[in-house]
Amino acid sequence: MFNLVQHNNVTYYFDPKKLSVKVEDAFNIEFWRRSNLIMGSATGRGTTWFVKEQSNEFAIRHYYRGGLLGKVVRDSYLYLGMKKTRSVAELNALEQLKKSNVNVPSPIAAKVTRHGLFYKTDIITQKIHQSSALVDRLQREVMSADIYQRIGQEIKKMHQAGVNHTDLNCHNILIDSKQTVWLIDFDNCRIELGNSSWKQSNLKRLLRSFKKEQSRKGIKFELSDWQHLLTGYGVSSLSDV
C-alpha cells in the first residue's frame, strides 16, 4: 500500500515499508550527497541517480519529455489527476507486475509538483543490483538460447498481467549477475483490457530495437536468437501472439 502526503503544491506517494528516511529527503540529491550515499549516476534525457539506503539500492529519476515536444516543453505535463501522473501511474504498474511475479524493480516513491494546470514529477524505484542492459551485454558477448527464452517468459508474464510496455527495447531489459532477466522503464506504459494487438506491437518494437542496435553498435544478435525469445513467450511466430 502506498501512503500519500501533501505539502503545499507537492504531493508524495510512497511505500513507507521501503523507506527508512523521510520521503522529502529521499528526493533530495543533496541529502544523499551529504550522507555520502550516492553510488553513481547514468545520463539519458536527464540524470538518474543511484543511492544506497541501508541494505537497499535506489534509482532516482526526474521525468523529461522526448521527441520534438521535449525540445519546447522539457519536463512539464498536463495535470489530469494524481493517478494519471507519469510517476504514480508507473508505480502502480510496477506494483501490479510485482504481484504477478514479473521481474521488475520494486516501486518506492513518487513526487508530483503542481504548477497550475501542469505538473513536474520524479520517481524512486529499486536499482537492480549488479545488472547491465541487454544491449550492453550483446556488444560484448553472444547470449544463450536460455537467456532469450527467459526474456520471452518475462514479457509473456508482463502481458498476462495486462501491462502494455510502450517502449520495450533492448535497453529496457536487464540481466543481473545471476543471469536473472528484469524488465524496466515503465514510463507512459498502460494497463490494457480487451484487444490484445498491443502485445504484438510490443514485440515488434523490441525486434526493431535489436535490428537497430545490430546496425548501429554491431550487437551479437541473430534472427535465430529472436526465435528462442518467441519460444520462451510460447509462440512460433509474431502472428501467433
Structural topology:
Elements: E1 3-7, E2 10-14, H1 23-26, H2 29-34, E3 38-43, E4 47-53, E5 56-62, H3 67-72, E6 77-78, H4 86-99, E7 107-115, E8 118-126, E9 131-133, H5 134-140, H6 145-160, E10 163-164, E11 173-176, E12 181-183, E13 190-191, H7 197-217, H8 223-233
Antiparallel strand pairs: 1-2, 2-7, 3-4, 4-5, 5-8, 6-8, 7-8, 9-11, 10-13, 11-12
Topology pattern, helix = H, strand = E: EEHHEEEHEHEEEHHEEEEHH
Query: Helical residue percent?
Result: 25-40%
What overall form do the CA principal axes indicate? globular
Largest sheet: 8 strands, antiparallel
Query: What is the count of DSSP helices, taking H or I runs of 4+ residues?
Result: 8
Strand content: 25-35%
| Number of E-type strands | 13
Spans with pLDDT under 50 lasting ≥5 residues?
Answer: none
Radius of gyration: 18 Å
Report how far apart the termini are. Answer: 33 Å
Mean pLDDT: 93
Structural class designation:
alpha+beta
Short overview:
The chain is an alpha+beta fold.
How does this model look, in words?
The protein is an alpha+beta fold and 241 residues long. Helices cover 35% and strands 27% of the residues. The chain contains eight helices and 13 strands. It has helices at residues 23-26, 29-34, 67-72, 86-99, 134-140, 145-160, 197-217, 223-233; strands at 3-7, 10-14, 38-43, 47-53, 56-62, 77-78, 107-115, 118-126, 131-133, 163-164, 173-176, 181-183, 190-191. Strands 1, 2, 3, 4, 5, 6, 7 and 8 form an eight-stranded antiparallel sheet that branches. A hairpin with a 2-residue loop joins strand 4 and strand 5 (56-62). Helix 6 packs across helix 8.
